[in-house]
Amino acid sequence: MDVVLKALCNIKNTVKSHRNINDYKETILAELPDLVNEACSVPRFGLELTPWSNWNGESNPLWWSSYNDVKHQRDIHFDKANLKNTLNSMAALNIVILYYYRELLAQAGEDYQFKDVTKKFQPESSLIKFSDSYYYSLLIAG
């Protein structure tokens, strides 16, 4: 997460030093404010995840804080290594990758939509999905 998020922020703001989550938040809110409201779903279980929504307020995402707690003191915070935090962090990573590749493609001089990016993702995720509008639909001949 950290590597891709930093790379995305460095594309959007080449002047600022992006050293931590607070630096990332500042750049994302200034340059890509729609990212914080992006949702992913886990259709199999009817879940909708908005993993960056805490950035609409003062705090960082709960899954981010939990990850760091587990990373630095897993013996104390082992309960935070749970499915909810895992799914939210996976959804957050998918969103950041989506935006990152859109920005990379845009650097080639064209205006790319998210569906142009998801078309390049192979194999397509069967667990975490974006809104249907982020995919080209397949026409079935009949």
3D architecture notes:
This protein is mostly helical and 142 residues long. It has a domain at 32-128. It has helices at 2-12, 21-31, 62-77, 83-106, 114-118; strands spanning 40-42, 47-49. A two-stranded antiparallel sheet has the order 1-2. Strand 1 (40-42) and strand 2 (47-49) form a beta hairpin. Helix 1 packs across helix 2, helix 1 runs parallel beside helix 4 (83-106) and helix 3 (62-77) packs across helix 4 (83-106).
Which key phrases capture this entry?
single chain; 142 residues; mainly alpha; two-stranded antiparallel ribbon; 47% helix
What kind of sheet is the major sheet? 2 strands, antiparallel
Mean pLDDT: 92
User: In total, how many beta strands?
Assistant: 2
What does the radius of gyration come to?
16 Å
Q: Quote the distance from N terminus to C terminus.
A: 43 Å
Helix content: 40-55%
Sequence of secondary-structure elements: HHEEHHH
Helical stretch tally: 5
Principal-axis shape equals: globular
Topology:
Blueprint: H1 2-12, H2 21-31, E1 40-42, E2 47-49, H3 62-77, H4 83-106, H5 114-118
Task: Give the gist of this structure.
This protein has a domain at 32-128. The protein has five helices and two strands, in the order ααββααα.
